[in-house]
Amino acid sequence: MACSSPLFKGNGNQVHFSSKSKATTTNGSSYVSITGANSGVGYATYQVLATTPDYDFHVIMPGRSLDKVEASRTELATSCSVTSSDISSRLSTLKVDVTDSSSIRAAADAVFRKWGYLDVLINNAVIGATSLDDDTSTRFTMRMQTTVTGPAVMAYVFRLLLLKAPVKPYSIFVPSGTGSFARTADTTRQRGPEPPGDTSAYHASKAAFNMIALKGYLRYREEIKVFAMTTGFVVSNLCGKSEELRTGWRMTGDHRCARDHVEYIEEREGRGCRGIGE
């Protein structure tokens, strides 16, 4: 099928950027998009971005189900005691399935048509708990598709939107220490309880995710500020929906530490955060 797009040319899997021209002026706000933002760190980051008056961000909230994304936007307005109009002016929704390349390209086209560019992409999509009944092949396929292939395609396709930004943009990956070979091999490190089932697929997918971030930095560091930034293990639905699993047996930190991400983007100085290659 031919690819009819203002951003891309080509068809099938052979897709190339049609233009690399930058926006010459800013639209007033910095445009930020975060994948995997219906709970945990991603949701908390949206909460800070969309409701803090000092931050001039317009956040674009993507999701496979627009109904769920709209529900999250309504929940934001309610929990933060702000009006729906205030939220609407600072937060937009976007339909995208990170496991579907054509959906990702369509979403990038939609962003380009409406805003022209993107200042910050935070790659945070991940699948946590899976059924204990899933066989090994199913577990690895699901993990890799959501945690590796999806973020890799998002980073590639949305990179053109970043390259069109009038100032040097950010591509931020939210990694996990579970993807560290050194940390996993350290038998002296204090460890918490393991989630139910075999976690090998999750750890392997996060190791691959870390490599995607590193390769992105090595290739695009002159044009894009590429960072791997983690807030650590925080309260979320990653391991499951019970209170015990959401809090990681009460070993998780406060998900509101997502403010660190926001302060880094806003200050453009790092504030002690380490990026890849620094």
UniProtKB/TrEMBL annotation:
<dbReference type="InterPro" id="IPR036291">
    <property type="entry name" value="NAD(P)-bd_dom_sf"/>
</dbReference>
<dbReference type="GO" id="GO:0005737">
    <property type="term" value="C:cytoplasm"/>
</dbReference>
<dbReference type="GO" id="GO:0019748">
    <property type="term" value="P:secondary metabolic process"/>
</dbReference>
<dbReference type="InterPro" id="IPR002347">
    <property type="entry name" value="SDR_fam"/>
</dbReference>
<dbReference type="InterPro" id="IPR051468">
    <property type="entry name" value="Fungal_SecMetab_SDRs"/>
</dbReference>
<dbReference type="Pfam" id="PF00106">
    <property type="entry name" value="adh_short"/>
</dbReference>
<comment type="similarity">
    <text>Belongs to the short-chain dehydrogenases/reductases (SDR) family.</text>
</comment>
<protein>
    <recommendedName>
        <fullName>Alcohol dehydrogenase</fullName>
    </recommendedName>
</protein>
<dbReference type="GO" id="GO:0016491">
    <property type="term" value="F:oxidoreductase activity"/>
</dbReference>
